[in-house]
Amino acid sequence: MDSVDLEVLNNSVQWQQQGHRVLLVTVVRTWGSSPRPEGAMLAVRDDGLVVGSVSGGCIEDDIIDRVRRQGITADHPEAIKYGISAEEAHRFGLPCGGTIELVTEPLTPASGIAELLDAVENGRLVARTLDMATGTATLGPANATDGLVFDGKTLLTIHGPRYRMLVIGAGQLSKYLCQIAVGLGFQVTVCDPREEYTETWDIPGVTMVRTMPDDTVTDMKLDERCAVIALTHDPKLDDLALMEALRSPAFYVGAIGSRLNNQRRRERLAEHFDMTPQELARLHGPIGLYIGSKTPPEIAISILAELTAVKNQVALPRAVGIAEAKAQAGLVPTGEVCELPVPAGKPDA
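^ thats the sequence. predicted structure below, dont judge the formating
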């Protein structure tokens, strides 16, 4: 669940507690390209205040206008479609002939939104099943690979962290990276046994552990929806954890450092841990995309841009990688030095 949809749940609960009626709108089907995926949510308060999105904006405007003119009068969920004709598709900002189907749900105590919010905020992945005839919803366990199901009678949606991220090292760069990763919907764990870093950690929504990183990787039981990012520059912390991560199904494993440092890292992993060329090929390093980044926030964006592309199965040209881009631009001298998380005048990590 991304931060936008979490905000929808938060506001829905607050508005109900304040005595407002709330209409929850969920995307259940799309045909053609769509700016928001199935499961995306919008909440509209009875005075027209809104949070979230289900389209590029025009459908939201129509729903808000209806609520302001008519109020929230329905007593059970309904399915509605937008963009059935080419004329409507143009009006609502959809591709010509495109269609989007929504479920509009007037929230009541039987909707269980407060219980859903509590489960999500506690890091649980849950399935919510909505009875279209009664508006009653129930919660149950879910798997990360489960998806939205709508048959006209019931709507099943999945809520909570589908993706997990382990960040090794609690330095300044990690703080910026974790803040953005939480906003992207990751359940983030930071591992650093060094007290001088963990004592000042203050990023909400992130779990901090002080165990050794390789033990943390093992304990997390990484699956294909996990990412591991090593940011310490310390082989004693990084190498064993990277070995374990590269032998797991994790979709992304990356480590900060220059081309030379990453070459040495690969040599160590091959020599001391018998890692195969196929396993080492999974390591992203130098980590990130070349965007000329010089500050920790910019480097965090560079790293997460590459990770997001891998997560979404987007094949990136080699020319946008740190090593290739710098080589083409002639930015890396022969004696290449280690690039720290806060490089002075040197772009990217």
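Residues 333-348 have pLDDT under 50 and may be disordered.
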